[in-house]
Amino acid sequence: SQQGEEDPQALSIQEGENATMNCSYKTSINNLQWYRQNSGRGLVHLILIRSNEREKHSGRLRVTLDTSKKSSSLLITASRAADTASYFCATFPGGYQKVTFGTGTKLQVIP
Amino acid sequence: EAGVTQSPTHLIKTRGQQATLRCSPISGHTSVYWYQQALGLGLQFLLWYDEGEERNRGNFPPRFSGRQFPNYSSELNVNALELEDSALYLCASPGGGAFGTGELFFGEGSRLTVL
Question: Residues 6 or more apart from A86 whose CB is under 8 A from it?
Fold first, then answer.
């Protein structure tokens, strides 16, 4: 079963706008990670946020984590057409075999 | 350092046949994780191999099996193929980190189509 659930399932924005994706999960975690998947290809790691962190930045990416609400958000600022992809959150409770991926948010950035 | 490599890129089989997918982890990494991604869905954990042994498996029937070779490359076998086995099969090497908490490095996947 999928622990992480992303919201929205699909998002379409204009180039230059910001994109926000949300992830909810059910059990305690050690960290939460976001991955990107270009159409039908492998996943690429974007950013990791530990359970004792509330916010993290990497370039145009900003991730927040609220462990009390068991939720996380990924913000992509000043989006580009090349950001078009599916984005997945993954919860790491400890032990890679227990990693759980969400169902993903499909982002389309229109030039 | 070479990343995770998978082959074949695409594979077309018919129901009842067997499919074999291959993965080479990042050089020096001993663990391999296999995931299934059915169309429009998230990743489902399939199998974990480490040091040549199967360490854990997800909620999949026994016709999903595999092995890991002495060079740490791995093979995933799917027997008695069913239509719902059509999916992207992804292999990953863990990035390390305490208690297995680092990032996963993925291959480009093998797209299996069952007709």
Answer: A36, A37, A39, A104, A105, A106, A107
**For B28-47, what is each residue's pLDDT tens digit?**
889 999 999 998 778 999 99
A and B: number of Cβ contacts within 8 A: 65
User: What would you report as the CA-atom Rg of chain B, rounded to the nearest whole angstrom?
Assistant: 13
Helix (H, G, I), strand (E, B) or coil at B83: helix
The separation between the first and the last C-alpha atoms of chain B, rounded to the nearest angstrom, is 37
Chain A, window 15-34: residues with a beta carbon less than 8 angstroms from a chain B beta carbon = 30-31, 33
Torsion, Cα of A56, B94, B61, B114 (10° steps): 90
pLDDT of residue B1: 58
Which among A42, A21, A18, A17 is positioned nearest to A32, based on CA atoms? A21
Torsion of CA B21, B26, B27, B32, to 10 degrees: -60
Q: Give the span between the Cα atoms of B76 and B34, in whole angstroms.
A: 8
